[in-house]
Design goal:
By secondary structure, the chain is of the alpha+beta class. It is built from 5 helices and 3 strands, in the order E-H-H-H-E-E-H-H. The protein has a 3-stranded antiparallel sheet with strand order 1-3-2. It starts with a strand and ends in a 7-residue tail after the last helix.
């Protein structure tokens, strides 16, 4: 596994490249990255080569043709916040996003690759019936709500005495 942290590319853009190589053999992934016209492809290629070197050195993997990309993900890193002056004294904020790239490679012969979990078996019997909840009390109407708050009622407005004119 290899990790590049605080890389100056947004995680969203890096994920587009990582999705292309996930699950592929290393040779095919490197060929894909070489011809991918994105800036993140150069950074991902560097991390992939580091992961292959780590597997060769740390785990004594001799046959590099058996290696596959089993993990490839990009997490968001800290955001560098800058301010761009604009017309009439305004200021726009600029966010320079960073990311943490992680790539893991493995060969199937060492048993490091985790097989995907099978989907859960569906029960043959129908699910048990749900218990019914008691019905909620009826909602107050607008006039009753106003009366509960102590506000004016329409009937009270009609019984008021009109003001005398001077």
């Amino acid at each position: 596994m290899a990790r590049a942290r605080f890389v100056r590319v947004s995680a969203r853009k890096a994920r587009l490249v990582l999705d292309q190589i996930r699950g592929k053999p290393v040779a095919e992934a490197l060929a894909t990255l070489e011809y991918t016209p994105r800036a993140a492809a150069r950074l991902v290629e560097k991390v992939l080569r580091s992961a292959v070197a780590n597997a060769e050195h740390n785990y004594q993997v001799r046959d590099l043709d058996d290696l596959r990309v089993v993990q490839a993900y990009a997490d968001g890193g800290p955001v560098l916040k800058r301010v761009q002056p604009r017309a009439m004294g305004r200021a726009f904020s600029i966010k320079h996003r960073t990311s943490h790239l992680t790539i893991g490679v493995s060969d199937e012969t060492n048993g490091v690759v985790a097989a995907p979990a099978p989907p859960p078996a569906r029960p043959s019997a129908p699910p048990p019936a749900r218990e019914e909840r008691p019905a909620a009390p009826a909602r107050r109407t607008t006039a009753r709500r106003a009366a509960a708050r102590g506000g004016d009622k329409p009937a009270a407005r009609a019984t008021r005495k009109p003001k005398e004119k001077k």
